[in-house]
Every structure is written in C-alpha cells, then in structure tokens.
Q: What sequence folds into this?
C-alpha cells in the first residue's frame, strides 16, 4: 500500500527529470517562426537552419575533436595515475588522491577564471589544444574514479598466474590486465568525451572566437531563444543516449561506479 | 621438527633453506627448511594462517623472503621474478584468463616462451588430451563446469614441462564426489609425468590420499615432515596428532619402562623406550580400541553417532576422562547412558 | 614492478600541477597583490556582496533540501525494485545527468517562461488566469538547479540502500514491524551515509554553480559564481574576483573537511 504511494511519487519525479529532455523534441520540429507551444505544425526548418549554418557546423566539429582529444589525453594520463593510486604505496599517495579528484570539487568557475588568467598570458586563448588541456584537467577525475573502481575489483591472481606462466610485467599488462579492464576503459573514455563535449563554463572563457558547440549555444540563448537551439539540443540528447547505450553494451556498468 | 626418511635425499629437486618472512609484527614463516625429491609429491598441510600459502608464494616468486634460500635443481632462484622460474601453478580459484579460450589459456605459457605455432598446437592438443578435454578448445572458461575449469588450469600448468608443479588448494571449490575423482586424476598425472609437486591444503584427508610425504605446518613453522603413515601413526607432537585424524591425546609421565602414569593415577601399558621420569604425550586413535584390549577403559556413552561403516562413541570415563571411540557398525547403535568397556593394546598406543 | 610503481602517476601529476594547482594559486594570489586584505574586507564587509554570499548559501541549502526530498524516494525505489525497473530508473537519472547543463537549462527556459509550456498549459486548463512568474527569479533558479543536481543525490542514496542486506528488513517484517517502522528504524539509520554523501556533494556543487543561475536568474538572482564571472569579464577586476574566489574556495573546502570527519571518502580506496 505504502509501496504504491512510493511508486506514484517516483513516477512524478521521473517525469520531472525527463520533462526538459522531452519538451525540446516537439519544439525542434515546430513550424512556428518563434518559440510556441504546442507547435502549430510540423517542419524540419530548425534542423535545416542548423545544418546550413557554417558557424553551427564549425562549432560542432570543433567540439567533437576537442572531445576526442580530451578523451585520449585523459585516458593516457588517468589510467597510469589510477594504477599508481590503487596499487602503489608511496609517500604522498593520499595527497595525490585528493589532488586528482579536486577538479570536480573546486568550483568550475574558479578553475575557468584561473586557467583563463594563465592562458591569456601564454596566448593560448582560442586555441583548440588549450581547451583540450583544460578539459583534460576536468575529465581526469572521472577517468580515475572509473578505472580505480575497475582495478579494485580486479582479481590479482590472474596477473600472478600470467607471470608464473612466464609473462613479463609488460606482457601481463598488455595481454591480461588491460584486456580485462576494457569495459572500464570504454566507460572512462566515453565519460571523458561527454564531459568535454558538454562543457560550457571553461569554453566560455577559453574558446575566444573559435566557438565550441556549447559556447555557441550559450551565446544564442543569451541573445534570442530560437528553436534552432531545440534542434541542437535534440541532437545532443541523442548523442548522449548513444554514448550511454555504448557504455551499457561495452562498458563497465555505470551502476558500479555509483558508490 | 623431525625429518622423515624415505624421500631419497641427495636427489632433492627443490630445496628450501631457512626461509623467513614477516608481515609487520606477524611471523608468517619462521625459518622454514624442507626438501622435495625429484618426482615426489609433498603436501604442505596446515590450518589457515599457518604460513603454508606464504611458503608457496615464496617458492612461486610472488613473495620475497626476508631470509633464506630457495633452490630448484641446484640453481638459486630466490631473487628470480616469477616469470623466470619455470614453475607451473594451479591457483585456488584456478585463475583462468576469462577473456581467452581454453586453447589460448593453455597456449599462453608456450607463447610466452616463443614456441612456434605448430609446436604450440601440438603440445596444447596433447595437454588437453591428457586432462580429457580434447574438443573443448574454443570454449571460454565461464562455459565450463568447475571440474573442467580445474582440468584446464592443470593443463595450463603442465603444458610447458615446468620443473615444479604447485597446487594451491585446488579442490576446495569442488563437491565431494568430483573432488575425489580429481584427486585421483591429479595423482595419476603427476606420477605419469614424474612431476615434482607441492600441494597445499588444510584438508588432512586429502593430504593422506594424495601425498608421498606430508609437511604439517603451524604458526609459520614445520611441525613434522614424514610419510603419510608415519604422520598418522607416529605424530611428532600434540598439534600434528590433533590436526591429522581423530585422536585421544593424554599426557603423563613414564613411571617404569613401558608404563605411563596418567594424572588421575591410572597406568597405561605402552610400547615405548622412553626413559622413566620423562613427560610424554600419549595418542590413541579412536579406531584402535577393541573389546578385550589390554588397557581397559570403562565409561558411560555420552553421544553415539551412526556413520555407516562405524559407530562413533563419546565416552565419559571414570576420573573425568573423555574418550572418542570408533567401533565397527554391527548390531543396533548403543544407546546413550549405557556403560561399556573398551580396551587398547600397547602397540596401538603412540607415545611422543 | 611496472604496475605497482608510483612513477606512472607522474605525467598526470605534472598536468595537475601546471594546469590546475598553479593557475588557481596564481589567481588567488592576485587578491593580496597590493599587500593588504582590502579586497577581502570589501567582499565580506560590504552589504551588497555579503548578500550575494548569503543568497548563494540559502539557494544551496534549499537545493540540497529539495534534492534530498526528491532523491531519497527515487534512490530507494531503484534499489528495491526489479532489475528491469531499476534499469529504467537509471536511464531516467543518467540521461539527464550526462545531457549538457545548457540543454537542460534551455529546456527549463522553454518550460517556465511567461509564454512557456507550463504557463500555457495552466492558463488553457483554466487553473490560472495570469502567467505565473517562474523564470528570471529565485523559483526558476531553484527548479533548474534541483533538476541538474538531483542525480548526484540519487546515486549515493541508491548505493546506500543497495548495501542494506535485504535479510534485515525481511527479518524485521517477520518479527511484525510495520513498513513505516522498518523504514524509520532500519533503512533510514543504515542509509545515513548515503544521505550525507549526497547532501554534501549537492551542497558543494550548488555553491559554485554558474550556468543555471546565470540563465534562469536573468540577472536578478545573484550567486557568487555569477559575481566572479562579472568581475572578470565585465569590470576586469581580477583582485576582487580572486578574493571572492578565495572565500568561495575556503567555504567549499570547509564543508568538505567537516564532511570528511564523518565519513571516510578516499576515492581510490
């Protein structure tokens, strides 16, 4: 009986969570020239406007390759870091652990302003690699958390077995450890990608004239709410859905990292 | 510690000398020495925490000892990494690589030794045939039963002709029937290949079934190394007597040659040359009691259990002594509360 | 010893030192460049700015409270339902979590505006005659932030409820406890850790929130992050922005430090 009440309450909360994601779909397909709900008719015009505008397309490509590069860099740095944090015992390990997770604790606005100050001096504002570096700092904690969770559950006797059977440490890493860690690697890489692809605060400060997709969206929202944003939003939601499906299919369950 | 005879000394394939290991304040290995002869199967038997697993890890190279030496075939391997030791090991949980097929699992040690493709195929085929798993090459470990997984682990451990085979409680996860089959199979294979083998277990029955010799460990030290019969019939101390098999252990003083005085004043006739005045332990195995034995015990049955071939009786004797007795299961199970008399001959009593 | 050594951490450490720790410390240094604490006196002494801090604190507190009220039932249901429904629940929580904050904020603008979906629906159904002021005010910011931060509350609570051995409430029920009593006497005390972890996380994230208050507040709801951005981008007052940042950072760390005293929360342990 009280269970039924719980289910009813939760249904409302689910609705609250999904409503904003669902509402952009009809708006993106509206035939009205401005924001109107319910839409008076159906049209692809906002998608066409997005596809025909080189600024949007530019920004999309930039976000995609910045996200890709961030994902690669965050894995290259974060995976070895997670190995050391989980498996090595060294002076300052606890401190390094805190430092590695600090980028998600320190408010992004502070990080953005700080890097903005530094990059202005180094003339890195508006460069794509500058953004990649800043986004990697932000993505690193996700990679460390996911990989560390995977490593903690890793059965060390498999590595011992491999070494006992004649494999060097490197061979063991390449043939046993990393292949078995692949689900975690997939999740970590995709999360790093998404965290960069969605990131707006840092981009607001660092992107300069070379807009990323979120920055372009932010500027558009500030100026005028036209349904092109809805079309872009729909595509963004679909992309996230695809990524989540990929993680569910090939990655390590996000459920496990919800500690 | 006593070293048993029998195992042809001088042809020691594995030599462990004075190996010590501490973890913080805990002494895991207290200067352990032992040797295993070529082709011998030595069991290290002990309760959990006795140091047997640490000893195995030192031999395999996963732990570095604080002191001591490990020699295989005359070569000191103490500082060698595991990969260079040429030791096959079957892990407690088998440690099969879950992402590799049966064939790839078994081929792994050969690949690491850069054996050619054709040669790998031949030897993997042989090894799998030996453990009766021909035809399972393409399966993944999770598609196999526990017994089959164990066979794969065994095939993987012997396929590269290791100098030494280590078995770390490999039968723990199997049910009783399967365990007995696998034990015999491992024994057969080990004899056939003449593999020098160390087998770790906490199960004394298993140790008795499988071993040439048994090393009983407790608190990081070897209590006794001897053949299976010797361990059972002539344990070196209380711990061994108690840990291996069921036992009645009493303590007393030799009052005259062949006579032990117990604390309650009783005298036991024994077959021992211990000097009068010596403090001794007395072991009486429950199954060695028989009606009409020379040393008689009379007591009330506190508990009687039917075990198929035998009755297991717990007696409360005069003077407060408790005795565990096994009798052939003939006739009805004696009722609790009845008083019976049992006897045991001097030759059946072990004095230590 | 390749997989057990400390040196693989080095490249990441360098990145964190050069592009995280150094710039943050450098920026915070601007606040005391003049050799005085004047900027701090301004940040903490003038009523105008003090009110921004108070506003931020108040919003963070309310957001945490609402997230807890909505997040607990959700986390609880997800942890105790069938796997199929749990998966559905995860989709409903993770999809918004990983959707850009910008997309979600934009959607709320569409929903909450004067001519937005919500007001249209309410007026057409005759429930209200005039549009409710939902956007560019405190309410709008609150709704948007609760939506963005709710997943951070749900996940730790879900984890905590999952860790409760189902035999315990079952045993209690078998002993005759009502479901209300089982909740108050068993689930609630056993999941306090998750509640605490989620609340700290949501509260701290709220303190530094920028996008949602900037867009949904419409300049009328000033939070500390928005103020910092203005000082840097509009007035180019770096020392003051640095002082505000330092105060925000100290406050954030203080909350964490207090939280750490109650829970052990090393991520890689």
A:
């Amino acid at each position: 009986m009280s269970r039924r009440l719980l289910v009813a309450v939760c249904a409302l909360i689910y609705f609250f969570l999904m409503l904003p994601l669902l509402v952009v779909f009809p708006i993106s397909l509206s035939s009205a020239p401005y924001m109107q709900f319910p839409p008076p008719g159906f049209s692809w015009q906002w998608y066409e406007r997005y596809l025909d505008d080189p600024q949007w397309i530019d920004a999309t490509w930039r976000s995609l390759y910045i996200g890709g590069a961030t994902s690669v860099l965050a894995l290259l740095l974060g995976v070895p870091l997670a190995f050391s944090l989980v498996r090595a015992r060294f002076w300052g390990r606890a401190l390094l652990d805190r430092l590695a997770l600090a980028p998600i604790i320190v408010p992004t606005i502070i990080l953005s302003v700080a890097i903005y100050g530094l990059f202005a001096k180094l003339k890195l504002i508006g460069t794509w690699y500058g953004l990649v570096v800043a986004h990697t700092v932000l993505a690193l904690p996700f990679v460390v958390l996911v990989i560390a969770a995977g490593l903690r559950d890793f059965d060390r006797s498999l590595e011992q077995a491999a070494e006992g059977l004649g494999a060097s440490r490197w061979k063991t890493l390449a043939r046993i450890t990393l292949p078995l860690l692949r689900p975690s690697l997939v999740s970590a890489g995709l999360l790093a990608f998404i965290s960069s692809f969605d990131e707006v605060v840092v981009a607001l400060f660092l992107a300069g004239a070379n807009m990323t997709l979120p920055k372009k969206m932010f500027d558009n929202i500030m100026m005028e709410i036209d349904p092109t944003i809805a079309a872009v939003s729909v595509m963004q939601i679909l992309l996230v859905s695809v990524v989540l499906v990929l993680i569910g299919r090939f990655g390590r369950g996000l459920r496990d990292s919800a500690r | 510690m006593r070293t048993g005879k029998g195992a042809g000394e001088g042809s020691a394939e594995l030599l462990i000398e004075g190996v010590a290991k501490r973890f913080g304040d805990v002494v895991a290995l207290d200067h352990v020495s032992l040797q295993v002869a070529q082709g011998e199967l030595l069991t290290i038997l002990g309760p959990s925490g006795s140091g047997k697993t640490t000893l195995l890890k030192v031999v395999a190279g996963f732990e570095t000892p604080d002191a001591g030496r490990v020699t295989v075939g005359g070569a000191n391997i103490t500082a060698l990494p595991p990969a260079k030791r040429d030791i096959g090991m079957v892990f407690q949980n088998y440690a099969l690589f879950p992402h590799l097929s049966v064939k790839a699992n078994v081929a792994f040690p050969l690949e690491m030794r850069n054996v050619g493709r054709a040669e790998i195929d031949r030897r993997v085929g042989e090894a799998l045939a030996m453990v009766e798993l021909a035809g399972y090459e393409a399966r993944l470990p999770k598609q196999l039963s526990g017994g089959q997984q164990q066979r794969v682990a065994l095939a993987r451990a012997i396929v590269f002709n290791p100098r030494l085979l280590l078995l770390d409680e490999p039968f723990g996860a199997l049910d009783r029937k399967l365990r007995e089959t696998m034990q015999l199979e491992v024994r057969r294979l080990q004899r056939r290949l003449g593999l020098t083998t160390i087998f770790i277990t906490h199960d004394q029955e298993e140790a008795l079934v499988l071993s040439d010799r048994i090393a009983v460990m407790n608190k990081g030290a070897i209590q006794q190394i001897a053949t299976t019969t010797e361990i059972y019939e002539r344990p070196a101390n209380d711990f061994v007597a108690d840990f291996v098999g069921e036992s009645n252990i009493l303590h007393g003083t030799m009052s005259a040659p062949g006579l032990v005085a117990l604390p309650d004043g009783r005298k036991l006739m024994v077959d021992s040359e211990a000097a009068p005045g010596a403090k001794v332990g007395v072991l009486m195995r429950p199954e060695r009691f028989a009606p009409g034995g020379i040393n008689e015990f009379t007591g009330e049955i506190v508990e009687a259990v039917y075990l198929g071939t035998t009755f297991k009786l717990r007696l409360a004797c005069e003077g407060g002594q408790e005795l565990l007795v096994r009798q052939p299961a003939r006739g009805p199970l004696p009722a609790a509360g009845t008083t019976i008399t049992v006897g045991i001959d001097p030759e059946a009593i072990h004095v230590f | 010893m390749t997989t057990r050594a400390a040196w693989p951490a080095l490249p990441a450490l360098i990145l964190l030192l050069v592009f995280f720790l150094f710039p943050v410390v450098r920026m915070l240094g601007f606040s005391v460049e003049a050799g005085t604490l004047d900027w701090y006196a301004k940040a903490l002494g003038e009523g105008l700015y003090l009110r921004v801090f108070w506003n931020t604190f108040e919003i963070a507190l309310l957001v945490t409270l609402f997230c807890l009220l909505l997040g607990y039932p959700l986390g609880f249901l997800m942890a105790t339902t069938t796997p199929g429904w749990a998966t559905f629940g995860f989709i409903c929580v993770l999809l918004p979590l990983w959707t850009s904050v910008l997309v979600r904020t934009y959607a709320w603008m569409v929903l909450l505006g004067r001519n937005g979906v919500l007001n249209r629906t309410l007026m057409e159904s005759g429930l209200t005659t005039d549009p409710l002021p939902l956007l560019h005010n405190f309410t709008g910011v609150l709704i948007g932030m609760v939506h963005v931060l709710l997943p951070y509350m749900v996940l730790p609570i879900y984890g905590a409820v999952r860790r409760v051995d189902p035999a315990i409430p079952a045993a209690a029920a078998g002993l005759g406890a009502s479901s209300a009593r089982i909740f108050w006497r068993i689930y609630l005390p056993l999941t306090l850790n998750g509640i605490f972890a989620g609340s700290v996380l949501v509260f701290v994230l709220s303190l530094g929130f920028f996008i949602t208050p900037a867009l949904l507040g419409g300049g009328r709801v000033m939070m500390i992050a928005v103020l910092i951005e203005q000082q840097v981008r509009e007035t180019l007052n770096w020392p003051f922005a640095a002082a505000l940042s330092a105060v925000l950072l100290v406050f954030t760390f203080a909350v964490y430090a207090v939280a750490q005293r109650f829970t052990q929360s090393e991520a890689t342990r």
User: Anything to note?
Assistant: Chain A has 13 helices and no strands. Chain A has a mean pLDDT of 90.
